Amino acid sequence: MKVAVAGCCHGALDKMYETLELLQRRHNVRPDLLLCCGDFQAVRNEADLRCMAVPAKYRHMQTFYRYYSGEKKAPVLTVFIGGNHEASNHLQELPYGGWVAPNIYYLGYAGVVRFRGVRIGGISGIFKSHDYRKGHFECPPYNQQTIRSAYHVRNIEVFKLKQLKRPMDIFMSHDWPRSIYHYGNKKQLLKMKSFFRQEVESNTLGSPAASELLQHLKPTYWFSAHLHVKFAAFMQHETNSKEELPKATKFLALDKCLPHRDFLQIIEVEHDPNAGDSLEYDAEWIAVLKATNSLVNVTQSSWNMPEKNGLHAKWDYSATEEAIKEVLEELNHNLTIPCNFTLTAACYNPSKPQKNMEPVHTINPQTTEFCAQFGLTDINDRIQQVKEEGSGRGEYEAEEEEEEMDSTGSAEEPSEYSTDNSGLSSINPDEIMLDEEGGDEDLSTCSVDPSPDHPPEFSTSFSDIRIMPDSMAVSSDDAMDSNNEELEKSSASRQGEEKSSTERPLKRISGDENGNSGIKKIKRRNQAIYAAEDEDK
């Protein structure tokens, strides 16, 4: 089975699908499935744009709305995860996953599905330590903090995924697993993106939560995006026992979707020839969701997941064979995900723009049906209940007012990872925003893997194969977020001379009245899209 993998498409669906058609014409390659590793931007209307954490100047409608309205249909089954530039209000409607348009499926905050027998998992968002232990409490309309925290990875999603025991074929995350750069051509990576050097050398680039999942799940393939650079690695995992067969993961980070860029990868994956062509639920994942349903938290309160430390009566929430069998029986052994896509918001009309459209908190019928079928908590329904109860006591408004005054949102107990101390700025603080370099390759150079004429990308891009040493394992004293302020400070002096004469100083939320915060402005990644003065006042 041929699987196409894309990085950040930033709402440019037409461009992405046209590239697939070009591959078919030039190479006679037609993928059976398309995977997208975040920053998908499923924007339906002007209200959705207001829920996307980018400066107002760069809130463009792009082309997703045409697929949402039914004007167009995705030519290939598309499965994606969320990143940090999304219409968060739209994706929030589907915390357990669902169809955002016909033939386009979102995996949810975290999820596992099957297609032709191939097991595909993913986790949405990016890691930020100060939100990691909170519940999914955000709902539209968002404020200046929640529009960002809404896409931050939570420990409950990582905990659920770590309950899985069956083999994983493909896994997706938006940000890279921390330490993965040590298993590829690190020299070439730093040559392309020299701004990564300090974080790579200090082993703080990437997500420690994703690194945990990589070590636990040991998937055959792991795909990421976020940093807008193509990078391949190969990691041989340690075995837990003599009986366990050695496992290895082929990692690939994809570039963003741009004309004349090699932003797609085609891989050949072994599949079940007897399996149907429908996307299917994963029985073990459903059983894990049922087992962990009592752990759902929709408040800002921080808490740790159960562990074997003497403080919890139960810490193992993995699915038993009996629980998996019960799921299969509930579904009459028919795991096909129903094509129950429903419009839940007005679609953008170019001839009748509605610039003042406000986002609302919506309960999606797909989520309602899914929760009813498997006895799960509808997270959005619970959020609304908490909000209504809090409003009745006047507490919810007070919490929001307090949150707006807190620029870091990190006044809490210490996290299992070091706290992120980066303040808010006019540019999304979760971005590293580095320079665009090179990448003028013709689309005909898109990799096709494997064939005699197109050797696998992995075989030529990693410098050596190594077992991960204990020193690189994620621990409770793991250092800072992937996008830390130290990188910004160190890069400032290195790149100050490259400042264009046409660039304006960045406005900041904190600092003195002239916007001086003590941090120099630096050149940033994907500048053509997001690195501009924030006009959202």
From TrEMBL:
Cofactors required: Fe(2+); Mn(2+); Zn(2+)
Quote the biased-composition stretches of kind Basic and acidic residues, using this chain's numbering.
Answer: 387-396, 486-511
Q: State whether keyword Mitochondrion applies.
A: no
Major subcellular location class? nucleus
Which InterPro entries does UniProt cross-reference here? Calcineurin-like_PHP, DBR1_C, Dbr1_N, Metallo-depent_PP-like
Gene Ontology biological process terms, A to Z: mRNA splicing, via spliceosome
Asked whether the keyword Metal-binding is assigned, the reply is yes
* Stretches for region Disordered: 387-537
| UniProt GO MF annotations | metal ion binding; RNA lariat debranching enzyme activity
Where does it localize? Nucleus
Any one cellular-component term (Gene Ontology):
nucleus
Q: Which family does it belong to?
A: Belongs to the lariat debranching enzyme family.
What is the protein named? DBR1 enzyme
